[in-house]
Design goal:
CATH architecture of one domain: 3-Layer(aba) Sandwich
Shape: globular
Radius of gyration: 26 Å
Structural class: alpha/beta
Strand order of the largest sheet: 2-1-3-11
CATH topology of one domain: D-Maltodextrin-Binding Protein, domain 2
CATH superfamily of one domain: Periplasmic binding protein-like II
Length: 570
């Protein structure tokens, strides 16, 4: 496959003038020279508009079929799709856009591929599906693609590259980047309670403990009753829930990784998990957790939040503020200011759990691009500009901006404009609202807008960096948006552990053990937290975990990470 692409791309260069060849040689790096980031950036790449796509001469028209994932709503027919028509005009293409719902995607692709009916570019139902096609020699190695995707290079971590590498043949089976929703959760605290306690934002273990006690015993709602608490787990009896979400990474990553000595470090054996459980036991012994903290489920636990009975949460910003203000009946400044997302992890030395999970995975069919070198470069050029910050992001995401509709000749009311901010975010300004604030054509849920065009945004949308319009002209809405926006920016900027888990794929006995051991692990950890079992026996638990199937997990993890199996697992 590498030989095929090398010959293919060599043909491209032979067809260019000497001047263009020199320009391409300067602007397109070798894959080995690309430095992929270790962690995801905290905002969009601000120089995206100046990236060089001169490798694509844009002269010849090409036919291309793209298969994307749908959302349960019929996508517009190709001849009625304004985004498709815009891209055809902008890139001198004749695109067939095929949309298949997620549950049917693998069957659709398998049937077509078995019949030799290959789509040019298609979204993958799973990594394993991609590796099967890679083993059959049907996919282009993404080492030959990423050099022509300069904006993708800013949004693809080294972990994602490892994740997409087929170990059986060392091919990178697909192109990926950020997910649409990734790293949008963090801890939120009650600022009114902090003020009542005379406390600052907690940044140490001692300070979070003092806040926890005050939430529970200092009557922050002033009703004279003992009916407020620090936290609940809200895991429905299946684990430590929000406690784990926030504090499970207080002493280190909750994933296995290779330490500075080149040895496998696993949270069950490096003290990290035990330290977390010790902290949870301290909270339990203090009596600062709600009475049904372990058994209550997520939805039911919202009653604590909405009735002002809990002091710390793990939530996405938009959801928390929307639910809380609706429950309070207003979104004024005082109500919005009750909850604030912590800009710093609340315990020294800790970080939040890893983000940087891969988003949609796009495969390129080798048979479709054989002898079609110009077509390959054209498609790469197009999809790269559809990332956040790229020239065509606003023309393909969230129903598209006005430019697309103007070109397609669609009359509209008002406008929809994408605006980038200096701190790496973006928002959409809409003036297409009626007197009640409702969206009007073409941005309603009818033919244009809603989910009918959503499959295009699978190429580039990232709501982790999306804000609300800070200047709508309504003071109440603007204040609410300002507070929500600050929370979104704070969450995007928090410190997170690297995503070591992208390098680990469990199969066979190890994969089975990772599933079947779940209930036993949850039950045992509950015993540790409640004191039913002493934490002095934690090492016994870890060794029992090994004997129950954990040894296979350790062995495969070490193999995936390229290190020796630790002595305790041999």
């Amino acid at each position: 496959m590498k030989k095929f692409l090398s010959l293919l791309l060599a043909c491209v260069l032979l067809g260019l003038s000497a001047a263009a060849l020199a320009e391409d040689a300067a602007s397109v790096p070798a894959f080995e020279d690309i430095v992929f980031p270790e962690t995801m950036p905290t905002g969009y790449y601000k120089d995206a508009q100046s990236l060089d796509y001169s490798y694509d001469d844009m002269t010849e028209t090409y036919e291309v079929e793209i298969v994307s994932q749908g959302y349960g709503v019929p996508h517009l027919p190709n001849d009625e799709d304004p985004i498709l028509q815009y891209l055809n005009n902008a890139f001198n293409l004749d695109i067939t856009f095929t949309v298949v719902n997620a549950e049917d995607l693998e069957t659709h692709l398998s049937t077509r591929i078995a019949a030799g009916d290959y789509p040019d570019v298609f979204v993958l139902p799973s990594r394993e599906f991609a590796f099967q096609l890679s083993d059959a020699g049907l996919l282009i190695d993404a080492r030959e693609l990423y050099p022509y995707l300069p904006l993708h290079q800013k949004y693809v971590t080294q972990g994602m590259i490892d994740f997409s590498t087929n170990t059986s043949n060392d091919e990178i089976a697909f192109v990926t980047k950020y997910g649409i929703q990734d790293g949008i959760w963090a801890a939120a605290i009650r600022t009114d309670w902090l003020e009542a306690f005379g406390m600052e934002m907690p940044t140490t273990r001692e300070e979070i403990i003092e806040y926890a006690k005050a939430c529970t015993f200092n009557d922050p709602d002033g009703n004279g009753q003992d009916d407020t608490w620090f936290m609940t787990a809200a895991g429905g009896g299946n684990g430590l829930g929000m406690l784990d979400n926030i504090f499970g990474t207080m002493a280190g990553s909750n994933q296995a990784y290779v330490d500075e000595n080149g040895e496998l470090s696993h949270p069950y054996f490096n003290g990290e998990r035990k330290e977390f459980l010790t902290f949870c036991k301290e909270l339990y012994d203090l009596g600062v957790l709600a009475p049904d903290w372990y058994t209550i489920d997520w939805e039911t636990a919202k009653s604590y939040t909405l009735n002002d009975k809990i002091g710390l949460l793990y939530y996405p910003a938009g959801s928390l503020y929307t639910e809380y203000t609706m429950a309070q009946g207003n979104s004024n400044e005082e109500t919005m200011a009750v909850w604030k997302f912590l800009e710093q992890y609340p315990i020294e030395g800790g970080k939040y759990s890893a983000a940087g999970n891969p988003g949609y995975m796009w495969a390129f069919s080798a048979p479709c691009f054989e002898g079609q070198e110009g077509k390959l470069l054209r498609v790469l050029h197009m999809i790269d500009t559809m990332c956040v910050g790229g020239e065509n992001f606003s023309h393909t995401a969230q129903g598209a901006d006005d430019i697309v509709y103007d070109q397609f000749g669609i009359e509209r009311i008002g406008s929809q404009e994408f605006i980038y901010t200096d701190d790496g975010m973006f928002y959409i300004r809409q003036t297409n609202l009626d007197e009640n604030g409702g969206e009007q054509f073409p941005y309603d849920q009818g033919s244009y807008g809603g989910l009918a065009l959503a499959s295009w945004q699978n190429f580039g949308l990232n709501v982790s960096w999306q804000l609300s319009d800070p200047d709508t002209g309504d003071p109440v809405i603007d204040n609410a948006n300002a507070i929500t926006n600050e929370a979104i920016k704070a969450i995007a900027a928090v410190d997170r552990w690297p995503n070591y888990g992208l390098n680990v794929t469990l199969t066979g006995e190890a994969a089975e053990a990772s599933i079947t051991l779940g209930d036993w692990i949850n039950a045992t950890e509950f015993e540790f937290v409640t004191g039913a079992r002493s934490l002095d026996e934690y090492e016994d638990f870890a060794n029992e975990w090994l004997s129950r199937g954990g040894q296979a997990i350790i062995e495969q993890t070490a193999e995936c990470l390229g290190c020796e199996v630790p002595e305790y697992a041999q």
